[in-house]
Design brief:
By secondary structure, the protein is α/β, with parallel strands linked by helices. The protein contains 12 helices and 7 strands. The chain has one domain: TIM Barrel. Strand 6, helix 11 and strand 7 form a beta-alpha-beta unit. Helix 1 runs parallel beside helix 2 and helix 1 packs parallel to helix 12. The protein is globular.
Length: about 240
C-alpha cells in the first residue's frame, strides 16, 4: 500500500524504460500494483514485451454484495495477467485460510490470471524446527487439489515471514534448502517433470547486494521483490542479475 496514482505511474515508467535499455536476457518482469494503478500500467507496458502487470489480491467469489472487494473478472478485464495470492501479510493481517486461498486460486485460473502463490514460515515456526511441515501443508491445502495441467500454471513464491520487512534475510543456503524441499514435494504429488518446470521465487528482503548469491542457487528461479521494488534502480539491478 505505497504510492499514489501519479507516483505509481512515474515509478513504473522508470522501470519500463530501464528494463528496455538495460535488460538483455529473457527475464520476465511482473509488477503487481495497487488496484488503482493497474489499468494505466497495462497501457504503459504495451511496448515492453517482457513486462507484465498483476494485482496484489482478489476476492474469492465471482460477483456479489461484497463491498470493497475486487474480483478476478474485474482484474482480468483491465488486462492484468497475474495476481499475488497468500502473501504473508494477507495471511497474518487478514487471516486468510488455506481453504480461502484454494478458492482464490480456482477463481484466478478460471479468469486466466496466473497466481503467484506465496508460502512460508513464521519466526516461531522456523525456530521450532517444523517449518517443512508448515510449508508442505500450505502446498497441500492451497494447491494440491489442482490437476497437473492447472498446477503448471502456478508461480510459487517462498517467503520466510521472519525475513520480510525485518532486514533479515535467509542465507542462500537456507533459501536453497527450502526451495529444494518445495520442488521435492511437488515431485511427489505431480512428478519430477512438473517439479522441474515449476517456477519458485524467493521473497524476503531481497536486494541488489544479496540477489546474485540467492539467485545462483539451483532451485531459486527468481525473486518476489518487496521494498526494493519501490526504487527503480534497485529493482532493475536485481533483474539484471539474470543478464547473460
Amino acid at each position: 500500500m505505497n504510492l499514489d496514482y501519479q507516483e505509481g505511474l512515474s515509478l513504473f515508467s522508470e522501470i519500463v524504460n530501464m528494463v528496455k535499455d538495460e535488460v538483455r536476457g529473457e527475464q520476465k518482469v511482473v509488477v503487481c500494483s495497487p488496484f488503482i494503478h493497474i489499468h494505466s500500467l497495462v497501457g504503459l507496458s504495451k511496448d515492453a514485451y517482457n513486462v507484465s502487470v498483476g494485482a496484489q489480491n482478489i476476492y474469492q467469489e465471482e460477483v456479489g454484495a461484497y463491498t470493497g472487494e475486487v474480483s478476478a473478472k474485474q482484474v482480468a478485464s483491465v488486462e492484468a495477467e497475474y495476481v499475488i495470492l497468500g502473501h504473508s501479510e494477507r495471511r497474518a493481517y487478514f487471516h486468510e485460510s488455506d481453504a480461502q486461498l484454494a478458492r482464490k486460486v480456482d477463481i484466478a485460473l478460471k479468469h486466466q490470471l496466473t497466481p503467484i502463490f506465496c508460502i512460508g514460515e513464521t519466526k516461531s515456526e522456523r525456530e521450532s524446527g517444523n517449518f517443512f511441515e508448515v510449508i508442505k501443508e500450505q502446498l497441500q491445502k492451497g494447491l494440491f487439489h489442482l490437476s497437473a495441467a492447472d498446477f503448471s500454471k502456478i508461480v510459487l513464491a517462498y517467503e520466510p515471514v521472519w525475513a520480510i520487512g525485518t532486514g533479515l534475510t535467509a542465507t542462500p543456503e537456507q533459501a536453497q534448502e527450502v526451495h529444494a524441499f518445495i520442488r521435492q514435494v511437488i515431485a511427489e504429488q505431480y512428478g519430477q517433470e512438473t517439479a522441474n518446470e515449476s517456477s519458485i521465487l524467493y521473497g524476503g528482503s531481497c536486494n541488489p547486494k544479496n540477489a546474485s548469491d540467492l539467485f545462483s542457487q539451483a532451485d531459486i528461479d527468481g525473486g518476489l521483490i518487496g521494498g526494493a521494488s519501490l526504487k527503480s534502480r534497485d529493482f532493475v539491478d536485481i533483474i539484471k542479475v539474470f543478464n547473460p
